Amino acid sequence: MAEPLLEVKDLRVHFDTDDGVVQAVDGISYGVSAGQVLGIVGESGSGKSVSSLTVMGLTRSSNARITGEIRFRGRDLLQASNEDMRAIRGGEIAMIFQDPLSSLHPFYKIGDQLVEAHRAHTDVSKAQARDRAIEMLGLVGIPDPRRRVDGYPHEFSGGMRQRVMIAMALINDPKLLIADEPTTALDVTVQAQILELIQRLQRELDTAVVIITHDLGVVAEVTDEIAVMYAGRIVEHAKADTIFASPQHPYTWGLLKSIPRLDTPRDEELVPISGRPPSLILKPPGCSFHPRCPYVREAHKKVDPVLEPTGGADPSHKVACLLPSETRRALWSALQSGETPDEAREEVDIPDTLSGSAGPDAGAQAAAPANEEVSGS
Fold first, then answer.
1. Under CATH, which number does the domain 6-223 receive?
2. What is the pLDDT of residues 97-134, one digit of tens each?
3. How far is residue 245 CA from its own chain's centroid?
4. Which residues contact residue 287 at a Cβ distance below 8 angstroms, ignoring those fewer than 6 apart?
5. How much is the pTM?
6. Are the CB atoms for 48 and 17 separated by under 8 Å?
7. Where along the chain do its domains lie?
């Protein structure tokens, strides 16, 4: 098997603050190959944006503690100098940020900003860079690009500004594109157009893409694999089809059940995930999801689950859950049939014993004090 273009290993990003240590990213691992699209999904505060900003070298600060490995084309980016990262950032790795209006300078014309982005990484004249800017605006679907290249950001709609940001990200033919909430604040029609554009450009340019979003519906059609993040960790990782057909983590179930569907009755209510994401300074002991999990057992409050293979048909499918696999399948089947989490809990027998995903040290962890930090992936 070819080496992944991007390989993240046990990445941890902690920030020292006056209130305590923010464990923004707490031991995540994933890989992305050339031409592959990975979706990273989770609520706000799950660590998905921080993990990708760290790949770009944008979380380096005096109060940041970053460990692990981020290998891009075999090179560990965490060991790269700031000067080297400036050369890589915007050149070989590019990023589309959440808000295009705040990402584009309001005082400068679109064309000038595209020209600057291109000339920062290539040895070309202003005229050549301008031609490249016009070419990219046309490629992302901006009408009359030769005229619009001289427009200001406020003269473009939200969807068009996002297209400009995509053009800027791709102007130097990056090997990896990170799209952080690329459809936020856009209406549904424009969302579909932006996602279709990213998918088309990814196919044409063979670019690896990481899409960050809080909405599983956004990544349903465009991703090859999906990583679900919660409280700074990946709690489930599988091929996109597997995530939607046979998810195995209660948090993933909650994300899926909160998405409107065309094949359900119009009067059927969505089922939100109860509670709020935990503080990344004071995480709950044991499984971080246990305060919000409808299927929690006492042992889950003490033992930290490990991300490990489910043993199913998809060899890439991994989950960090203490429920036995048979129980998870039965609960998901009940939820699919239209039952609420409370009804599913009443129907399915949920054992108090721990599943194999608790890891070999489950007994010792269960006996550990509640305030003792327990390691996990």
1. 3.40.50.300
2. 888 888 899 999 999 999 999 999 999 999 999 999 99
3. 19
4. 293, 296, 300, 301, 303, 304, 305, 320, 321, 322
5. 0.88
6. no
7. 6-223, 228-367
